[in-house]
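= Protein in question =
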Amino acid sequence: MKLNNKVAIVTGAASGFGEGIAKRYAEEGAKVVVADLNDDASARVVSEIEKVGGAATYVYADVSNGEAVKAAVAHAVSTYGGLDIMVNNAGWAYSNRSSLDVTEDEFDKVFAINVKSLYHATIHAVPVLRQAKGQGVIINVASTAAVRPRPNLTWYNATKGAAVNITKSLSLELAPGIRVCAINPVIGETALTETFMGVPDTPENRKSFLAGIPMGRFSTPLDIANAALFLASDDANFLTGVCLEVDGGRCV
């Protein structure tokens, strides 16, 4: 198993990419802290992991709140004895529309969830990751929006550009003890699909989005989970500062 006895926090793990990562990590032997706002969905994810023999626990976590992130890290330590992998997956987007129509509250919210959360995770997780068995790992789920942005999501795109820059800068600052990498998914099969599209998620409306993805489909939680597994594993122990595009060729 690639993550045997490793301890991982996955934020936003009650659905979508985060759920896929949490389950994939558990399959590979990790003890997973499901950190999310959704009690019922998180309980389902934990139950499904445990039913197949994995180890998981849930902690309520608003990633825009520093005390909540601090509590999630403390929960990992008290439950499993430490922390090896911090996956900053939780994210939010406003609906695809003119950047002039995005409210200030929406602007503040998208930066708080997508960017300030990385500050909180760094402040509270890094001291524990420095004590990790072998090497600590931080994985930030950014987006192809950071490198090939679509119109009408400007402020969201900016948060993902920040995530990529933070990843690269921290990778230099925290080496050699902690590796920091990012994943840039293309639009995926998640609860936010229609939000990114800005139109109803119908086969006809998907055509324009799929036309920009050479491999002809959206990303899936398993696509992102497999990338997150590789980056967290010893197979990637010489990789840091990498921002891996999982995009079916979108950014080529």
About this structure: Strands lie at 7-11, 31-36, 55-60, 85-88, 136-141, 178-185, 243-246. The chain has eight helices and seven strands.
